[in-house]
From TrEMBL:
Its EC number is 1.10.3.-. The gene is qoxB. This is Quinol oxidase subunit 1. The keyword Oxidoreductase applies. Keywords: Cell membrane, Copper, Electron transport, Heme, Hydrogen ion transport, Ion transport, Iron, Membrane, Metal-binding, Oxidoreductase, Respiratory chain, Transmembrane, Transmembrane helix, Transport.
Length: 647
């Protein structure tokens, strides 16, 4: 391939050219705005170099929302293509690229950062800590994720998008069937972002185990913190598998090795096994923090302590263990034998039991509660029946014999989305609304929020329930068109209308943010929801040090007990507080990683060597740097506290 041909788009179209223009104009507008309003210094000091877990959480949140709409456009294009038989909106190649990028963007670059956003902002506050255990590592984790996302997203305007599916099975992802650099982007971009996720897992396990407030034993931690601990344990065990897998795939594509080829001793099923050893725990990396959010929201707005605290903790631990024992159900139909299928069928159905325990505990928490239906609570209430549909169909797919009928059809697509959308997206929207006042100092409009919740919920049913029926009728997934004689047309048109409804619901959320930013009152209490855990015990806005005096914890609902039983949360006097310094090294190192990844994608060996040296130079500088942080004096603390009380 000629040198410059590698950078060309294999299948150009007016939409791609329009995207190029839009990206260029957006970049020019951002640079011009920063220059005109003289915000370069502010951007560098306050955001690009920050190590504050709260600001890092907000940056994760903004990135996740951006990727939500990026992946949502892909989804609308797919549903529009399938809305009518023999549609010509997209050709087969473009459809392959779109469903590939949709899956990766939504799982890796939307759902993961949404979870990281809430973990970063909430967990240190919930455990009464002043920051995470390794603040600079936390900043590097975010910037590696962000640069991985940006590298992946430039693929459709430079070199071409990956087109082998979000699972990127070999030999489809090999050079024989994916000749462009699209699959290189897949291997390298996810690798960079995945390293950031692995760092986050190590960081938050250390933070939760070592930095809890005095009196907060493990069995007094809030449920979202427990969910975060279990989730990060899964990350630490699952993501190294993905790291090794992507390295092997990269070597097959760029260096001619034969790990996954069907000749010369390779084995394509090795990719499938390794991928799902990571991929199915990844589902629970997404869902367990969502369960933690629901636990916080339901207990807050039912005005009751969470029913069955110990069983909730135990069920999460059991789910985390079983999540590593079900991966083979993703290829029941690939000839692995009846005994193996039977074993993994049993483990698949077994994982439904601890999940059911959690559902019943939430229902018992609601029973006899003084329920207040706020927007976050509405998402939680709508989640329960919708998620149950997805869960029950998962048990159906878990029966290996029946899976021969369901597998590789739209039935499976419907099941996955009926689990992930109510299980993760509803939870993230509930958490976004719930923690918005603590993040930004004002409430989102409740009326608009409830309209959005109802529209998104009803549209989810309309978009995916028809897929169960068309899947049972034989409509295969990944099929870019179909004939009118199949009878799939009406089902797909209803699905398209549902997808359009989802777009309307998310547009309402954007409008809510705009409306509330302009008109919502900034004079709100530190605890506007009358909540139960420590994150609501500090001021709004949250000071840099989180707590002037570390809280003394006596239960899993420390703030609630302090309000209702008079426990003193903050005994003692002010003392100087040690805080970490900001650093530009994580951002600079991530930019070098971006260049490293781009060089790898296009086999630019000299830039690759230079950027590799740059990465090690950054690591060396950090190793020899003497940075002991800084102290906030008692006088500064008193001044800040007085100003915040006055506000």
């Amino acid at each position: 391939m000629d040198f410059f041909d590698r950078f060309a788009i294999p299948n150009p179209s007016p939409a791609i050219y329009a995207s190029m223009v839009a990206i260029g104009l957006t970049m020019i507008a951002i640079l011009a705005g920063l220059t005109y309003f003289k915000k370069w210094g502010y951007l560098w000091r306050e955001w690009l170099t920050t190590v504050d877990h709260k600001r890092i959480g907000i940056m994760y949140l903004l990135s996740a929302l951006l990727m939500l709409f990026r992946g949502g456009v892909d989804a609308i294009m797919m549903r529009a293509q399938l809305a009518v038989p023999e549609n010509k909106l997209l050709d087969a190649q473009h459809y392959n690229e779109i469903f590939t990028t949709h899956g990766i963007v939504m799982i890796i670059f939307m759902a993961m950062p949404f979870i990281m956003a809430l973990m970063n902002f909430v967990v240190p506050l919930q455990i009464g800590a002043r920051d995470v255990a390794f603040p600079r590592l936390n900043a590097l984790s975010f910037w590696l994720f962000f640069m991985g996302a940006m590298l992946f997203n430039i693929s459709f305007v430079i070199g071409g998008s990956p087109d082998a599916g979000w699972t990127s099975y070999f030999p489809l992802a090999g050079t024989e069937f994916s000749e462009s650099v699209g699959s290189n982007y897949y291997m390298i971009a996810i690798q960079i972002a995945g390293i950031g996720s692995l760092m986050t897992g190590i960081n938050f396990i250390t933070t939760i185990l070592k930095m809890r407030a005095p009196g907060m034993t493990l069995m007094k931690m809030p449920m979202f913190t427990w969910a975060s601990l279990v989730t990060n344990a899964i990350i630490v065990f699952a993501f190294p598998v993905l790291t090794v897998l992507l390295a092997m795939g990269t070597m097959d594509r760029l260096f001619g090795t034969h790990f996954f080829t069907t000749t010369n001793g390779g084995m394509d099923m090795l990719w499938a096994n390794f991928f799902w050893v990571w991929g199915h725990p990844e589902v629970y990396i997404l869902i367990l923090p969502a369960f933690g959010i629901y636990s916080e929201v339901i207990s807050t707005f039912a005005r009751r302590n969470l029913y069955g605290y110990k069983s909730m903790v135990g069920s999460m631990v059991i789910i985390s263990l079983l999540s590593f024992l079900v991966w083979t159900h993703h290829f029941f139909t690939m000839g692995q034998g009846a005994l193996t299928n039977s074993i993994f069928s049993i483990t698949t159905m077994a994982i439904a039991v601890p999940t059911g325990v959690k559902l019943f505990n939430w229902l018992f928490t609601l029973w006899k509660g003084k329920i207040e239906v706020t927007t976050p609570m509405l998402y939680a209430l709508l989640f329960i029946p919708t998620f149950t549909i997805g869960g029950v169909t998962g048990v159906m797919l878990g029966m290996s014999a029946a899976d021969y009928q369901y597998h590789n059809t739209m039935f499976l697509v419907a099941h996955f989305h009926m689990v992930i959308i109510p299980g993760v997206v509803f939870a993230m929207l509930a958490g976004l609304t719930f923690y918005w006042p603590k993040m930004f100092g004002f409430m989102l409009n409740e009326r608009i929020g409830k309209w959005a919740a109802w529209i998104i919920s009803m549209s989810t049913l309309m978009a995916f329930i028809p897929m169960f029926f068309s899947g049972l009728d034989g409509q295969a997934r990944r099929m870019y068109t179909y004939s009118e004689s199949t009878g799939f047309g009406p089902w797909n048109m209803v699905s398209f209308i549902g997808a359009a409804g989802l777009a309307v619901g998310f547009a309402l959320i954007v409008y809510n943010i705009y409306y509330s930013t302009r008109y919502a009152s900034r004079n709100i209490a530190a605890d506007p929801w009358d909540a139960r855990s420590l994150e609501w015990a500090t001021h709004t806005p949250v000071p840099a040090y989180n707590f002037a005096i570390l809280p003394q914890v006596k239960s899993s609902e420390a703030l609630w007990d302090a309000k209702k039983h008079g426990h003193e949360l903050f005994p003692g006097e002010y003392e100087k507080i040690h805080m970490p310094n900001n650093s530009g090294v994580p951002f600079i190192m991530s930019c070098i990683f971006f260049g490293w990844g781009f060089s790898f994608v296009f086999s630019l060996w000299i830039p690759l060597i230079l950027t590799t040296i740059g990465i090690f130079v950054c690591m060396g500088l950090r190793s020899f740097e003497k940075d002991h942080g800084h102290y906030i004096s008692v006088d500064e603390i008193e001044e800040t506290e007085n100003n915040l009380r006055g506000a």
